[in-house]
DNA sequence: TACTTCGCCTATTGGTATTAGGCAACTACT
DNA sequence: AGTAGTTGCCTAATACCAATAGGCGAAGTA
């Protein structure tokens, strides 16, 4: 019997392709085996189980996304860097919905914590924020707010929560501009709000 | 054979309980039947299928969440209303992780669009924003940014993405204060950012 | 009490994840 | 080239889950 040339990398890559095509939740060992023209048990030599496969897809996507963001941000600073970061983030999520969904599900915290890809996201965020001259803990706080806003926006957008007739892209651009204003005036914004 | 007294409502409620206990993705017809002490096919008289069940849990959760937020915001305005909204949102998500996860997954857009629960979220957001005297399209843009930030924050928090030693709650409060500042200065923030 | 309705049952089918063990194809060494 | 060992994909089997069809007894109605 001719061999299919499976490797962990090729299986993970195919799973990512499948996720973008049919949705991350529909990535099954059976469907993946079919896409290779191979029987299901054959995949278990390359990935431990379905959970392992999904984690690998998530790490692959996080790494790819970090690459795109890094390329977009390179050579820019301030509002240019912020806009490049934000648009690279959203573009990746919209063009790779299955891979992006993989990064959304809750994985083993140990795997996430040990992953260089996720660490790069934090680093990229902090590098992009450098022009705003924030210091800790402002840097962490602002970074968390930014990533939350980006992540939340594309999630709500792809889940069809934004139903108003107002253009989704126009709202996005306005939101990014607003976040830029917020970062430039972060110290003024630090006055604690009532009984928060 | 004694009857178990199943109804669509009781089944949905039990599924929500189960989701909070074991995670939304682990809510199965089989596990739900076990929790009632009945056989699996018995549930199909009350819910159409698994997808239907999950949508019902999502709508239940969205409604409960809207109730909590409405109660928290009642009688408040401005920064008090914003903080009450934000904290009610986050508290619900953290205390009911399974139900909140149900609202995150992509459901049938027709079901979501026709749901009063999701419409109430938009209304509550707009009501809370009233004190900031925004007009369309600013109202929609600001509302989307707010909901994105809240949703993104609790999602990243529950998924264990925030690993820095900085307190997650402190960052949250700071983020809410920053959003308040942003809303108060929304028109100043409207200057379009470079090549966004 | 007889009849109807309806709730939960048994039986069954098909899909999926996962493990155990076998055989054939590739690799390396003589 | 021939052979030993390794590796890759296979068949077989188990267990769990979703979903449908049809039956039977319990609850409501005359």
UniProtKB/TrEMBL annotation, chains A, B:
Top-level taxon: Bacteria
Domain HTH tetR-type: 5-65
DNA-binding region positions on the chain: 28-47
InterPro entries on file: Homeodomain-like_sf (IPR009057), HTH-type_TetR-like_transc_reg (IPR050109), HTH_TetR (IPR001647), MT1864/Rv1816-like_C (IPR025996), Tet_transcr_reg_TetR-rel_C_sf (IPR036271)
PROSITE patterns in the cross-refs: HTH_TETR_2 (PS50977)
SUPFAM superfamilies assigned: Homeodomain-like, Tetracyclin repressor-like, C-terminal domain
Keywords linked to the UniProt accession: DNA-binding, Transcription, Transcription regulation
The keyword Transcription is assigned to this record: yes
Alphabetized PANTHER family for the sequence: HTH-TYPE TRANSCRIPTIONAL REGULATOR BETI, HTH-TYPE TRANSCRIPTIONAL REGULATOR RUTR
UniProt protein name: Transcriptional regulator
């Amino acid at each position: 019997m001719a061999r299919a040339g499976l490797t962990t990398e090729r299986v993970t890559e195919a799973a990512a392709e499948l996720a973008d095509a049919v949705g991350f939740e529909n990535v099954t060992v059976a469907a993946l085996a079919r896409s290779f023209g191979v029987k299901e048990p054959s995949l278990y030599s390359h990935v431990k189980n379905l959970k392992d496969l999904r984690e690998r897809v998530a790490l692959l996507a996080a790494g790819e996304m970090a690459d795109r963001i890094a390329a977009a941000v390179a050579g820019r600073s301030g509002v240019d860097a912020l806009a490049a970061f934000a648009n690279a983030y959203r573009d990746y999520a919209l063009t790779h919905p299955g891979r992006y969904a993989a990064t959304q599900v809750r994985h083993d915290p140990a795997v996430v914590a040990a992953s260089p890809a996720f660490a790069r996201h934090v680093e990229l965020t902090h590098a992009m924020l450098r022009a705003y001259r924030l210091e800790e803990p402002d840097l962490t706080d602002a970074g968390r707010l930014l990533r939350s806003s980006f992540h939340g926006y594309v999630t709500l957008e792809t889940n069809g929560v934004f139903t108003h007739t107002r253009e989704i892209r126009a709202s996005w651009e306005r939101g990014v501009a607003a976040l830029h204003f917020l970062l430039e005036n972060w110290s003024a914004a630090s006055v604690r709000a009532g009984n928060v």
